[in-house]
Structure formats: structure tokens, C-alpha cells
Amino acid sequence: MLSDVLPSQNIDFALIFAHSPNPYVLLDPNFVLVDMNEAYLRVTMRDRAALVGRTMFEAFPNDSGASELRTSLERVLTTREVDHLPLIRYDIARPDGGIEERYWSATHTPLLDGSGAIALILQHTVDVTELHRLRSHARLGAPGSAVAQIETDVLHRAEAVSHTNRLLDAERLRLRALFEQTPGFMAVLTGPAHVFELFNAAYLDLVGPRDLFGRNVREALPELEDQTFFGLLDEVYATGRPFIGHAVPVLLRRGATGEASLLHLDFIYQPITDASGAVTGIFVQGHDVSERLRAEEALAASHAQMSEILESISDAFYAIDAQDRFTYVNRKAETLWGRPRDGLIGQIIWDVFDRSPDSEIRRAHVRAALLGSAQRLEYFSEALGAGSRPASTRALPVSRSSSATSPNGTATRSGAS
């Protein structure tokens, strides 16, 4: 009963509810019927015992309007705002077992508890079946009064509004689905306290399972207190200027009680403005780039280790890319050629060392790249010092994954005899 749900007050709202001439029914968040007044029982041709404790859709099974009614109720749960159904066809069973065609106009109002959560939904429903029939008669050319025509026009406009609302609701649901399925994390914060209004699945994956909706960021994410993020949000809200962060370190708990983990995030705080240009909230969007940074650090460490090895070997070593440009020259090659590596990197090898296309060394490079196998040759090289000196060379093909060169290039190791 209503008196069991709402605390007693000076005004007897339960009495007002019970004796109102307007049909009212109360539903819990699972759409279970909690209580209804006498006007509702009369218009639905039911008694209280047959309704209380059953869901709306168990008490009034329907194939035509159930989906539209459920969508309106679910919209109230999502937005915590009043939702209107200007016109809905929802047939109900008569006491004799027959089905009666009915048209209704309904308003669904959320009733919040002390914590701001929805405790009940109040449905105010009006039977507009006669209006709908009047309009049908008018369409068929049946005679009618001016009042009937006005009522018909009103109902027609209500139907148009209802149709528009259904289209808007379908679009809203589509956009909400896109928001939810976006791989990057997203959230919408409202007001100067940055209260969570929306967040997608990726955002919950980032912060772990915790209660976010209706809470401000300081309450929901207390571990961020000393990490500059709250100050950044305040600044974006105050100035209306977005903030973009790249690989920003953050200590986050995966859940309200989990251990803090170090993550790196790319993200943007984008101010949301109203029609007058005033900031009303902040849109948060980003990606966790922690794995990418770890991979880059591991690759850099591998490159450093490879460079250390190549710098310590006794042979000259150089690498060229697919355009025959030097990408690496080790210290021994600098010494043998008498040329600093800074002057070689980026230069085409055959511009530096003039060799004809049919020379053995150039053919070895081509074979290594085309065949994907090492090529070895011995030749006399003037580049190894004064005069012509014998050299032993191995040309090795390397791919994008190689630490020595770029795609489809060649690494060459040479030694003087």
C-alpha cells in the first residue's frame, strides 16, 4: 500500500491518492504493481487483489502496446525524468474474458528515495478511447459537433507527437548503443561537481566495478585526489577550454576496494555547453595506452641491446632500407671507411660508394632482398683503406620486425682480410 512506502506527513497523501478521480498506479523499479487507486481499478475493470504483486505486463498482457509501454518505463529508470506517452493503444481483457480495444494517454513520474535512487514510478493514465473513436468517425465523414472536431484534432496532434517521440527514442537508443559499444572509454559529467550522468562499458572496465551514477568524481574515484585530475576538470569547467593528455600516468584502483595499478592514458576533457555557451558538463573520452607503452619500452630496450652488440663487434656493419639509404652504421664501419656515421645516415649507399649496377656488391644486395637469404662474397675494396684491399661481406635480408633497418632492407657485415 502507499502508506507502507511513503512516510507519514501532515498532509495525508495516501488519502488524496486513494480518492483522486484520476487513475493512478504505483510500480516498483521491476514494474511490479505496488498500489493503485479506485479510479484506476474502475477504468481497468479489475480489483486490487488481482493486481498487487504482479508486474504490469503479467496483469495486463498485450501484444500491441506492451513494447511501447515498457520503453517508456525503462526510459524513466534511465533518465530519472518524467516520461509521456501522448497516445498508446493497449487493449485489456474484460471481466467476461473478451478483449476490449482501448487507447490511453499516460505519464510516468519517478519517485526518488533519500539517496536519489528510484523507489517507485507513478503512472497517471487517461482512457482516450472515445476521443479516438470520434476521430475515426470524422475521417469517415460521419456528422459531428464542432466540439467533437476539436477533440479529434487534439487527438490527431497527440498521435503526431507520439510518432515523433518514437522516432526520437529509436535514434536515442541507437546513439546510446554506439556509446556503449565504443572501444574507448567515455563518460559524461554534469555540473561544477562533475557528477557521473553517463559512462560506457569501457569506462567501467577501466575503473573496475563501482557505483558511479549520480556521484561526483571525488566521491566515486577518491584515489585521484592528489593526481591533478580534479584540478584539470575544474579548470576545463571554469574556462570552457578542452584539455588533451597523452600517455598521462594515473594510479587507479580496479574497483572500489581493489589495489591501485599504474596506467597510462590518452584522453580529452571536452566541455559541454548549452545554447547560451555556458559550460554545463564535461565529456570524457580516451584510451588506455599502457600496453602500447610497455611494448615501445621493450622494443627500445631491444634496440639498445642490439646497438650495444653491433658497436662491440670487430667487423664493419651497416644497414640500408628498401631505397638503399643508410639506416645504421657501426663504429667499426666508420673507422674502416674514414667517414662519420652522421654524414652517412639517410644517404643512398651507391651515391656514397660509386658501384655500377652489375658490380658484385650491388648484385649481392639485390639477391639478398629478392631471395630472402644471406649472400656472401669476397672482393677487393678501395673503401677499406689506402689502395685496394680484400674484403669478405655477408648481405642479410631484414624485415619490418628487424631492429637494424626498415622494411625490406639489407644488413651487411664486412671485414678486411
From TrEMBL:
Residues 399-417 have a biased composition (Polar residues). One of its GO terms (biological process) is regulation of DNA-templated transcription. SMART domains: PAS (SM00091). InterPro entries: Biofilm_reg_signaling, PAS, PAS-assoc_C, PAS-like_dom_sf, PAS_4, PAS_fold. Residues 246-301 form the PAC domain. Residues 302-373 form the PAS domain. Pfam families: PAS, PAS_4. Residues 386-417 are annotated as: Disordered. Transmembrane segments: none annotated. It comes from the Bacteria. NCBIfam families: sensory_box. PANTHER family: BIOFILM ARCHITECTURE MAINTENANCE PROTEIN MBAA (PTHR44757:SF2), DIGUANYLATE CYCLASE DGCP (PTHR44757). This is Histidine kinase. The lineage of its organism: Bacteria, Pseudomonadati, Pseudomonadota, Alphaproteobacteria, Hyphomicrobiales.
